[in-house]
Structures are given as C-alpha cells and as structure tokens.
Amino acid sequence: MTSVKTLFDLSGRSALITGGGGALGGAIGLGLSQAGAEVIIADINLQNASSVAAKIRAAGGTAHAFQGDLSKELQVEELFAKIDKFTSLNILVNAISAPQNRSSPDVMPLADWDKTITDDLTSFFLTSRAAAQRMIKAGKGGSIINFSSIAGATSLGRGSVAYGVAKAGIIQLTRDCSFEWARHGIRVNSILPCQFDNATWDEYKKDPARAKLVERAISGIPMRRFGNPEEMVGPVLFLASDAASMVTGIAMPVDGGNLAMNPGGSIDW
Fold this sequence. Notes:
The protein is an alpha/beta fold. The protein is 43% helix and 14% strand. It has a single domain (4-197, 229-253), classed as Rossmann fold (3-Layer(aba) Sandwich), CATH 3.40.50.720. Strand 1 (14-18), helix 2 and strand 2 (38-43) form a beta-alpha-beta unit. Helix 4 (73-84) packs parallel to helix 5. It starts with a helix and ends in a 15-residue tail after the last strand.
C-alpha cells in the first residue's frame, strides 16, 4: 500500500499556475512547491508573478515567473514554448480571474460580454489545450485544475451575468475535457470557491459604502467568514496529486457551505 506521504508528494513534477500572481495563486504556488513541485507562475502582471516566485524561492523552492495575456492564443503558445525549454509540464492550475465591467443583462454592452468571456473562459480553453497536447505527447498523464466559482453554479446578481456564464462554462469545459482526455491519463477537475480574502475584498471591508455588500456576502457562507487563501492549498494539492488518481470531471465547492445552503434557510426554528 502506498504511504499517505507518498500520495501527496509532487517531487519531480512541474506545475503551471495561471493568474498565479494573485492571492489564491500565490498561496497555491507556495503550497505545491512545499509538496516538491517545480512551480511556474504566469500572470498578466509580471511584477506580481515575480513577487510570488521570489517568495517560493526564498522558502527553498524552485520557481519561475512569466508575463502573458493568456486570453490571446499567440501569447499562450509563446508561454508554453518557453516552458518546454526547461521542463515537462505535469500540472496546470488555471486560476485566472480577470476584472469585469458589471451591468444588467438587458443593458450590457456586447464588448463587455465578449471581454469577460474571453478573459475568464477562453483563456482556460487555450491553456488547457496547450497543456493537454504536451501531456498526451509525453504519455505520462497529468492533472488540470480549473478555478470556477460559486457564481458558476448559482447567480450572484450584482451585474455579474457575463462572469457567471464564464464560470459555468469552466465547469462544462472541465467535464468535456475530463471525458476526452481520460484515456490519456489526464485528470481534469474544477474548484468552486466562495469569496476569499484578497486585495479587492480588503478594500471593500474598509469602505463604509460597501459594508452591506460585505455583510451580504458573509451571510451567504454558513461558516460566517471569507476563505483564507492558504485554505485552498489542501484541495488543490489533493487534485494535483496521486491521492486523487481516480478523481476526474468533478466540480468541488470550497465555499464554507455556500452551495449547500438554501437562500431561505436558517438555523433558527
């Protein structure tokens, strides 16, 4: 029987984290590095990617940083060509979450719709396709983990229609890719986070005008708090590792119970 420590060991594997310069990507990068993986951080903001990579190296890990707009096909191919020069990719974590222009669907400009779908869904397809091509050629399988959202399973409102559709699309992209690539030993799974602490929510918490929004968001989480980025390391490590060798095609909520709760539910009765 394989030991538990061996199940979660990523030694000798390489992991690309897209959108890796953010709070979640940074925590995940450090966590996968501590499990033994060589980590590649890709972000549209090179300074953010470099900062995360520097923290990983300072902790004794191996990390690289690259800049790229991964909603652009050419830039995706350029990124993967650079990675091909020094490693063979085993793990892809798609953690891109681009800024969005919000409006009601009856007045949303097509340009805003197109941009959100391209940034938050097409980018996942492009990077997954590029990673799978290489994993299939190498013949050793691999793991792809796509970050969707509770917004992909239920509506958040607040003008986030395009974002919600993109995140729902990620769940279906995950299902289809998991089915297509299972015969190659490539596992594809998605994660549905609730609100996690990041720079945006930190600003909202300081703004009295946003107090009701923050209160409403927390009220939708039975655990009564936002997630901490470090709390995402365990779920991602599980899906990336041999511990999840028979797990593919799932949409895993990491949401403090949000999706389990009926909007009219209450512990008072």
